[in-house]
């Protein structure tokens, strides 16, 4: 049997996702209409023999997470549990700490996935690849090709091109190493814990020499990338399965809109029922659009492409929405226009107002370009990016909000351009 682990991190993570991550843990932020990690779960439950999915992170369990877990359990009829780390133990420390839970029931292999990636999750292909490489029980990293410049933001993999063995692994190198990058999706056998255990023991020995206080905790912080993959490379145990199917990181809010676009187009194959269609008496739909069944939308509104409308959203006459995510409870009054933006929970946009951002999509002329999860400021100035309205923001009628980030609960009274409104 098989299991899967999703590394969901914790509240100190996801800083580039603010102010949206103030309201909901980033792994539950809706992408193409469903929580980010539901896409991982949907891919896992399609794998035959998948017995359990474990979310590992250091969030305090809260109502939102519990609600998600129980509704996912019911919907997918597989055990889905949250295991909370007592502190941030990093990508290898968390799975090591909970190794007994992962190994209970005797899985022959298990997937580990970063929560903040969007992917087609070619999990059956990874299982097949594992059988055909090494001794059939090797560890597999999903890789993809990036351009030279962007590869430096990821784990970089040098492979033996004949055998696909990982010969060399460098996490976020400062100079070019390889254009094959780590997608943050792995297939391990229980033997991985032997290798993590060796690092744990080494950390303990090092700490004894240093006579540090709180050593137990420090020894348990283990990074899969720097501590494990770097050492395993070249030992005939670690292989890379390179895919050219869609994949992207979800770090910034801008990348959530891009990820939504990728998943919405995948819905044609996986969930056609989630895509809105043009019907008489319904709004005009252009391209791929998700509309929650409880949203109330005037038939004269025009939506799409790449729009996701959340629960209980209300959209008035003549409204235009493109390349945006509208979160639950928001109200878009008549004739307002929302482009390249995320509109927060329960926010209101007044009549004839225009809320617009600048997309940060990957360069369409470069087949290997990834989205740049850029920092907020460059040369002391806010970089033009998508506009984000935090929750419960109110935008008056007839104003323009351009390339701005509005923190929650703000009541604006005029137009703003390229600003963070605190
Ligand atoms: N449980 C747990 N999860 C964690 C912790 N720290 C990070 N994570 C989770 O682990 C994943 C990786 O997060 P980061 O440590 O921020 O790494 P990164 O910059 O995203 O880079 C990683 O992913 C890239 C692909 O997206 C890889 O290219 C890179 O090599 C690396 O694995 C995220 O899903 C994050 O939530 C932790 O202490 N505990």
TrEMBL record:
<dbReference type="GO" id="GO:0005525">
    <property type="term" value="F:GTP binding"/>
</dbReference>
<dbReference type="InterPro" id="IPR005835">
    <property type="entry name" value="NTP_transferase_dom"/>
</dbReference>
<dbReference type="InterPro" id="IPR018357">
    <property type="entry name" value="Hexapep_transf_CS"/>
</dbReference>
<comment type="similarity">
    <text>Belongs to the transferase hexapeptide repeat family.</text>
</comment>
<dbReference type="GO" id="GO:0016740">
    <property type="term" value="F:transferase activity"/>
</dbReference>
<dbReference type="Pfam" id="PF25087">
    <property type="entry name" value="GMPPB_C"/>
</dbReference>
<dbReference type="InterPro" id="IPR050486">
    <property type="entry name" value="Mannose-1P_guanyltransferase"/>
</dbReference>
<feature type="domain" description="Nucleotidyl transferase">
    <location>
        <begin position="3"/>
        <end position="197"/>
    </location>
</feature>
<dbReference type="InterPro" id="IPR029044">
    <property type="entry name" value="Nucleotide-diphossugar_trans"/>
</dbReference>
<keyword id="KW-0342">GTP-binding</keyword>
<protein>
    <submittedName>
        <fullName>GDP-mannose pyrophosphorylase Aa</fullName>
    </submittedName>
</protein>
<feature type="domain" description="Mannose-1-phosphate guanyltransferase C-terminal">
    <location>
        <begin position="285"/>
        <end position="421"/>
    </location>
</feature>
<keyword id="KW-0547">Nucleotide-binding</keyword>
<dbReference type="Pfam" id="PF00483">
    <property type="entry name" value="NTP_transferase"/>
</dbReference>
<comment type="pathway">
    <text>Nucleotide-sugar biosynthesis; GDP-alpha-D-mannose biosynthesis; GDP-alpha-D-mannose from alpha-D-mannose 1-phosphate (GTP route): step 1/1.</text>
</comment>
<comment type="function">
    <text>Regulatory subunit of the GMPPA-GMPPB mannose-1-phosphate guanylyltransferase complex; reduces the catalytic activity of GMPPB when part of the complex. Mediates allosteric feedback inhibition of GMPPB catalytic activity upon binding GDP-alpha-D-mannose. Together with GMPPB regulates GDP-alpha-D-mannose levels. One of two paralogs (gmppaa and gmppab) that may have redundant functions.</text>
</comment>
<dbReference type="InterPro" id="IPR056729">
    <property type="entry name" value="GMPPB_C"/>
</dbReference>
